[in-house]
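Query structure, 193 tokens:
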């Protein structure tokens, strides 16, 4: 697997894949996908090119294809975090939160403070009705970055769903203290009354 991940670094030098990556970042998923697919004809085992096609497929809502490609990458490089995150995102978009939980639990076991994985994990937990666990994850995220207004809002929403009124109001107010111009914070607090 180390060789597989090392090959990704070598692929980063490819002008074609640099262009595809730039196009994907600009929102031109179809063009990025076409370039990476052409590259894969010449280099069928290239993980980076496969990843670009998978990410473009996800952006284009070709969810079955994105899932298949992410799984093929993880078969060759099981610890490739970017592929794990793509797979989890794909599963969530397919309303398969329970399947996403298995992927995310594995990511978190390796990287317990990975913020994007924790956010997806909270979303998945909420998606299967584990609101208390979703709230606990946002509490953990806020220990990593207590200045994130959105996390305070999500925490407040989860507290509200759990019937923890005072804690929900406290979370919304904390968000307002940090971001007094946050429309969502004002709306969340005002909507409570």
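Result returned for the query:
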């Amino acid at each position: 697997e180390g060789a597989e991940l090392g090959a990704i670094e070598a692929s980063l030098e490819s002008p074609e894949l640099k262009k595809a990556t730039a196009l994907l970042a600009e929102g031109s998923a179809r063009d990025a996908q076409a370039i990476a697919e052409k590259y894969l004809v010449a280099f069928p085992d290239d993980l980076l090119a496969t990843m670009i096609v998978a990410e473009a497929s996800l952006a284009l809502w070709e969810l079955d294809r994105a899932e298949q490609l992410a799984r093929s990458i993880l078969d060759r490089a099981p610890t490739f975090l970017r592929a794990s995150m793509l797979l989890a995102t794909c599963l969530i978009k397919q309303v398969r939160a329970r399947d996403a939980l298995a992927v995310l639990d594995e990511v978190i076991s390796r990287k317990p403070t990975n913020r994007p994985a924790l956010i997806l994990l909270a979303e998945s937990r909420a998606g299967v009705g584990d609101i208390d666990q979703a709230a606990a994850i946002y509490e953990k995220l806020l220990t990593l970055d207590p200045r994130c207004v959105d996390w305070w809002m999500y925490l407040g929403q989860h507290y509200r769903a759990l019937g923890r009124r005072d804690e929900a109001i406290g979370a919304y107010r904390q968000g307002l203290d940090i971001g007094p111009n946050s429309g969502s914070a004002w709306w969340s607090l005002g909507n409570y009354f």
